[in-house]
Every structure is written in structure tokens, then in C-alpha cells.
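Known limitations

C-alpha cells in this collection are predictions and should be treated as such. Users comparing against experimental data should check residue numbering before alignment. To illustrate the layout, the record for Immune-responsive protein is reproduced below. The input appears on top and the generated C-alpha cells appear beneath it.
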Amino acid sequence: MAVGTESTNGVDHTGPSDPKGPTGQLCNWISGLSLEQIPAETQMRAKYLILDGLTCALVGAQLPWSQKAVRTILDFEPSGSCGIWGWDRGVGALSAALLNSTFIQGFELDDFHHLAPLHSNALILPALLAAIDHRSATHEAPTITGKAFLLSAVTGYEVGPRVGLALNGGHMLSQGWHSGAVFGPSASAAAVSKLLELDAGTVESALGTACTQACGLMSAQFESEAKRMQHGFAAKSGLFAALMAKGGYKGIERVYEREYGGFLRTFSQGSGKDPQYAVDELTKGLGAEWQIWDIKIKPYAAMAGTFATIDCISALQKEHPRIMEDVTNIESIVVELGEAAFKHGGWKPQRPLNAIGAQMSASYVAAVQLIDHRVTPAQFRHHQLDREHLWHLVDKIVCIHNQNFDKINPWRQKVTIKFQGGERDDLVQQVEKPKGFKPPLSNEDILHKWRDMTANVVDDARREEIEQLVLDLENETDMKRLSGLLAGMTRSPIE
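Generated C-alpha cells:
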């Protein structure tokens, strides 16, 4: 029997290469985690988080860029047994994970971790359901229960942010990395490894193979439709890594802590941080402090770094409705942001602008709130993106980096509005943390978002059945039923 191998009832179970190292500790925790170890309120929050992910997926499935991705992949990918959500077609497991993740990321409506920026549902749910469809089609395993699915999802929700925190969280965005696409393969690989009931040694191989596929450039946010797909690359990579590990394919050992070519050391090169990375974040409070509570739900259809700007303007509109209604009298607007938000969203948009660029720009989103009093998918329909009066406002908005915010509160933002003629005093509003942070969206808020956003996308009976299944996951006996409910054509929310 190999070193590090234990035998139970004639079945060999391998442990990680270094059980006391951070990678080994994480792998042992993933392999050994049970639903009973997860607090009831954490399980409940996970179910609502899953529901929000499906909200975003169904809203995103028939967007123009989603349609383009599906049709292109169907041109070169053979049909398969894994469902494309919101469509009546199937593809192979890896392409299904890629496409369904792209839908969740399709309209900047999905969850985000505010300390280690990534979009967990786009990484985890597509990989898990593709794995379920694949295993069902190959008759490889008995049915997957809702309990097993919930346990696997929580595993992914936990691992992804920890990897992100070890790489200094939001600083990765400031460095130009699409942070969620870098942290993401670990999250999806961990979730699928749990679903496949891999032992700790095999989990180590899965994480090692997942990490070597990590990448993502934040320049995709300006005009590239690939921004919608980069979490999909990570979901696909994690699924691939777990399936390969299950087949016996050896991955990188001790992948997080290795000095030469290790994940943390390599991705943190040039970070300017001291220490360069924080390997202890992988395991600190593991099993006691649950990362799911730092996963936030979006109330707006825009990049999270713009939310405090939206809230500043919204507050001024409520406090000074008459003055704020006459936007033609505005001379200038200054938006002050912390470093990550400024580098992510403080750039100056120019025409022509597509929806992805508009949703990433603090200036554009500020103008949308001023004109429309809301930031929802409807504001980013194609014909809305070139409104003359909106662009007239965009030209008056300047974003600046306030370095004091970096030291005090990186989520703080401030808006100062100056009016023409000098007859009115400047209006100033500062927000410490935006809506969705403080207070976070409640479970009831998430349920309202689900019902409101999907009302014109899927029929009532189908929507109600999905809702009931997800909120009663612990009693679901076959998760293929959810796959079936997600399949079938949906409608676009912007047509």
C-alpha cells in the first residue's frame, strides 16, 4: 500500500502529500466536511444564494451575447447530455459549465464576495449541475440528492473566497487581474470534488490541476464580451480538474504554498504587499467562520464598485427631489472612489459603448441613476446606450481616486454635484458601504428579486417549481429534476 494510504473495507483512501501544510489541511477539510457540521442558518442562506444564482442564469440565458455564445459553440461542439439552461439543447459537460456560467454573469446581477472579489454562483452551480447531468447520462452513480448538492455548493462557497483572501483579495483587481477568474477554478474544483466524494489526496490533485488553469485579464471589462465568459472558463477548469482527478490523473501537490511556481507566490509577484501573500487565510477559522456571510447579493445591474455612487445619487434624489430633477442645471459631478473601485470603474467611457462597458463605468452608471432613477437590465438595452441627454451628463462627470478611502474604508464613495450659475450650494453625499452590504439583502429580498426578475422570463408554474425545489433542497431526492426545470427555452428580459 502506498505511503499516505489507508484502507477501509478494502477500499484505498489516500491523504494529501503534506497533511499539515495549508493545501493538505484544506483538502482534508473538503473531504471530511458533512452537512451536519454546517450551521442551520448557513445552510438556509446557501439555499437563497443558490436561488439568486438561478435568477441570474435565467435572466441571462437569452441575452444577445449569450445567444451568440450558444450558437457559436453549437456550431463546433457535438450535442450532449448536459443541459444548456434556458435552451432546448444539450452539450458536453465542459461546454455546459462554460455556457451556463456565462449566463449567470450575463448581466452583472450576480453575487460577489466583497473582500475577495469573485462571483461564486457562476463558478459553482454550472459545474455541479453539469457534473450531475454527466454522471446521470453515463449511469456512473446513483441519483444525487439535494443534501449532497447543498453540501457541495457550500464547500465551493467556502474555498473560493479563502483562496482570494490569500492573494490579498481586491488588490488583485487593482493589479489588473480578473480576480474571480483567478480564484475561481479552486472554488469549482472543490465543489465538484465534494459532489464526487473524492478522498483528500484526490482533492489535492483536483485543486492542483485547477490552479494551473487560472487566469483572467480585467481589460475584458471595457468592450469584450469575454468578460461575461471568464468565470465560465474557471467553472469549466474546475470541473475538468475534478473529473480528471477522479480518473486518476495526478495534479500539482501542495499547489498553494510551493515556492517555485506555486499558485500564491506566482500570482502575487509584484503585488507590493508585505507579506507578498497570506497563506494562512486558506485555513484560518476553517469550519467555524463561514465565508458565505461575506457573499453579497446585487441590488443593481452593474459592477459592485459603482453601487455606492448609485446610492449617493439616489439619496440626493430623495432629499432634494426638485433640484435633482432638473439635470440640465448640473455643471459638474465629482465621484471619489477607493483604489479598487477607481481602477475598475473610474475610467472615462466614450461612444460607442456596449452594455458590458456601460455596466463597468461609474460615470455611466451615475448618469443612468440621474436620468432613470434606477439601474436595472432595462437601462442597458441596445437603444438605451446612445441617449444624447445621458451622454451629455456623462461628459460632466469626473471620477477621482481618493487615497484616504483606501486607508479608512475602501468601499466609501463620495459624490459632489455643482450647479450652473453658482446660485445653489453644492450637493454632497457620502456613503460608507452601499446597499447590499449594509444592510445586506435579506432572504426575503432575494426571494423578491427572484420573482420580480424572472416574471417575464419563464412561465409561472415553472418558476414556482424551481423556487420550491431550491428552498426545500434538503428533501429533494434527485437533482436531475432541477436540471430538467432549467432546460427549455426562456425569454430575453431586454427584448
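For this record: Residues 1-11 have pLDDT under 50 and may be disordered. The chain has two domains: 5-297+470-486, 304-431. Please report discrepancies through the issue tracker.
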